[in-house]
């Protein structure tokens, strides 16, 4: 007997609908031939739990969520979750069904926490429900205050930046750039001066040593003049007897032109003091003074000549002050060279 095509199509549709219903119930944990029992739990909130989410016991799948609804139509009474769990598992009445996070993507699952009661659920029943905060929820709860603080910090930073923009107007920015440029040029000039002073360190040391020698000789000459004055006081009678030779002595002084020599010495010392003042203040032609070897050599020769002259004046004052009491003449002799003249 030939089956019409319409009948075949009808039978195929019925089979497809049956397979769809069985598959849908299987995904919800309601297998037609599965040995399941329904256990319920009531929660204040389910945190994204959905039907078909798995039920675990010690990490092992023992069922799935079959249905969810508001208890007695009153949300204040909570949300009832029906769970299809394997009948072969004994569930103590004080067990607890905890909603947990299943993976990093936020998928929810129900974990059975078996109690220690000796009384077990007889078929279907209700156990306590609990919601545990997952890792992602904890991170989210901690991130929210941090985000609020970051927003406040960014707002404060934005206000500070706007304040800086108002302070650093174009005119101020130009002045600041000009000041930095001037400071850079000044530092470059100081660096060049420091390099020049470093190169002329030896010449400066020599000049300072010569000045120290001159100062020592001037001190010795001052002491000699003090002793000479004391001798004049002690020999006051002798001086009275030699007043007749004062004219001759004055002529001798005029010949050696001691006043002009002292005047030149004072002028030289004044110029040297002004030069040292410029060196200390960093002004004037310091670079020319340090780099002019000819001027340095002339100054050194003049210093040595003055050193010899002052030492000879201290050692032999009678060569320059001719107190001729008996009319005799002293033989001319060359000046005595100072002990440190060659150093």
Describe this structure in words.
The chain has 3 domains: 1-34; 35-136; 200-319, no CATH class. The mean pLDDT is 76. With 343 residues, the protein is α/β, with parallel strands linked by helices. It contains 9 helices and 7 strands.
Low-confidence stretches: none
- Would you tell me the overall average pLDDT? 76
Order of strands across the biggest sheet? 1-4-3-2-6-5-7
User: Tell me about the biggest sheet?
Assistant: 7 strands, mixed, barrel
Series of H and E elements: HEEEEEEEHHHHHHHH
Supply the number of structural domains.
3
Please bin the fraction of helical residues: 55-70%
Shape: rod-shaped
Strand content: 5-15%
- Helical stretch tally: 9
Distance between the termini: 145 Å
Structure classification: alpha/beta
Number-wise, the strands total 7
């Amino acid at each position: 007997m030939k089956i019409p095509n319409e009948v075949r199509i009808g039978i195929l549709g019925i089979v497809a609908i049956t397979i769809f219903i069985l598959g849908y119930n299987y995904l919800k944990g309601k297998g037609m031939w599965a040995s399941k029992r329904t256990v319920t739990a009531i929660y204040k909130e389910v945190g994204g739990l959905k039907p078909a989410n798995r039920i675990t016991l010690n990490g092992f799948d023992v069922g799935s969520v079959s249905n969810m609804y508001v208890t007695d139509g009153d949300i204040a009474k909570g949300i009832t979750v029906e769970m299809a769990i394997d009948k072969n598992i004994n569930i103590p009445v004080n067990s607890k069904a905890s909603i947990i996070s299943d993976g990093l993507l936020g998928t929810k699952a129900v974990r059975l926490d078996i109690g220690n009661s000796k009384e077990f659920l007889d078929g279907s029943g209700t156990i306590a429900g609990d919601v545990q905060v997952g890792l992602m929820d904890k991170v989210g709860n901690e991130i929210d205050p941090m985000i609020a603080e970051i927003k406040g910090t960014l707002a404060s930073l934005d206000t500070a930046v706007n304040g800086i923009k108002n302070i650093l107007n174009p005119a101020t920015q130009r002045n600041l750039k000009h000041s930095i440029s001037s400071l850079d040029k000044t530092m470059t000039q100081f660096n060049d001066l420091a390099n020049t002073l470093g190169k002329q360190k030896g010449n400066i040391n020599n000049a300072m040593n010569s000045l120290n020698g001159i100062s020592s000789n001037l001190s010795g000459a001052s002491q000699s003049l003090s002793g000479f004055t004391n001798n004049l006081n002690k020999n006051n009678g002798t001086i009275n007897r030699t007043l007749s030779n004062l004219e001759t002595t004055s002529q001798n002084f005029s010949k050696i032109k001691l006043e002009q020599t002292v005047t030149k010495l004072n002028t030289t010392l004044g110029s040297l003091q002004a030069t040292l003042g410029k060196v200390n203040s960093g002004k004037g032609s310091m670079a020319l003074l340090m780099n002019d070897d000819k001027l340095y050599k002339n100054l050194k020769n003049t210093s040595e000549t003055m050193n010899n002259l002052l030492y000879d004046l201290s050692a032999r004052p009678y060569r320059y002050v001719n107190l001729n009491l008996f009319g005799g003449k002293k033989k001319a002799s060359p000046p005595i060279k100072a002990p440190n003249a060659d150093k």
